[in-house]
Specification:
The protein has 12 helices and 2 strands. The chain is mainly alpha-helical and 297 residues long.
Length: 297
């Protein structure tokens, strides 16, 4: 029994650390949805592109801090450019128009690295010790500890931003009703761009952390699909939901891999979050912390 408890503890700790890193990517979904009322299906491609920017900067013999800065600045610039050129013309249109635009952007961005700098897997080494950290029976790689710290810090910052700052309240007003926000004198176009820029910052950080752990290639974009159950489970418009959803999905993935894989041959952690997502949608269509919307017709 003691061995089983130790095994379960190791699985849960590993899952929770990965779950917090999922939450960082999920924050990009939440930021865009809270401000624009649309889902950014190109979030995974943003993460991938940030990783490619950082590895390209390292290949040019830039120090790691400069590579990180290049990824952050590059993703902010890209987000502003895409918002102005592609998404701003859709302002005021049905949300499905923006969703379809982001799906098209995802396809374009995923094909961009292979035709420019090559699709081979690139390493993204960070100046972090390789010595694992032991928490009783759990072995946690240092990169995951860094990912947890960064995720918690930015989730706290953005929570305070939306709750306390004037700009955050304006972003929430824009998401609630763009036409009314315009009538109140809020520059909707400006806040639309700010929301996408913040999503670009989150994508840059996620691309650096996940790229360091997994390597950078076009498959890194799949992290967007891995994280989608997180935002559905927690609620598309809830930062707290992104945290809770990430922790739940991470723990479920780890426990499924530890207990079910030996019986079915592996792969359960890839579909277990989606089973959980479907069950959640059956009973909580807006997610655990999502705001329920009632429309009068």
């Amino acid at each position: 029994m003691w061995d089983e408890l130790a095994f379960a503890f190791a699985l849960v700790v590993s899952g929770l650390s990965i779950g917090m890193m999922y939450s960082l990517i999920a924050l990009g979904f939440v930021l865009v949805y809270k401000a624009t009322d649309a889902i950014n299906f190109a979030q995974g491609e943003f993460v991938m592109l940030a990783g490619f920017i950082a590895t390209t900067a390292l290949a040019a013999d830039l120090p790691i801090w400069a590579a990180i800065a290049a990824a952050v600045v590059g993703m902010i610039a890209l987000s502003f450019a895409l918002e102005r050129a592609v998404l701003r013309p859709l302002l005021g249109r049905p949300a499905v128009a923006v969703i379809m635009a982001t799906i098209g952007l995802a396809a374009i961005l995923r094909g961009l690295p292979p035709i420019t700098i090559g699709a081979q897997t690139r390493s993204l080494p960070l100046p972090i010790s390789d010595d694992p950290i032991f928490i009783w029976t759990a072995v946690v790689p240092p990169i995951q500890v860094v990912g947890v710290i960064v995720s918690m810090a930015f989730l706290a910052v953005f929570t305070l931003f939306f709750l306390k700052s004037r700009m955050g309240i304006a972003l929430r007003a824009v998401a609630d009703n763009q036409q009314v926000a315009m009538a109140m004198g809020i520059n909707v176009e400006r806040y639309f761009g700010i929301a996408w820029a913040m999503a670009g910052v989150v994508s840059a950080l996620g691309g650096i952390i996940w790229g360091s752990m997994l390597g950078v290639d076009t498959q890194l974009a799949l992290i967007g699909l891995k994280v989608f159950p997180v935002v559905i489970l927690g609620g598309l418009d809830s930062i707290v939901g992104a945290v809770v959803g990430g922790l739940i999905v991470g723990a479920v993935e780890s426990l499924a891999a530890g207990y079910l894989d030996p019986y079915v041959g592996g792969g359960t952690k890839d579909f277990a979050p989606y089973v959980l997502m479907i069950i959640t949608l059956m009973f909580k269509p807006y997610g655990i912390f999502g705001q329920r919307r009632i429309e009068r017709v």
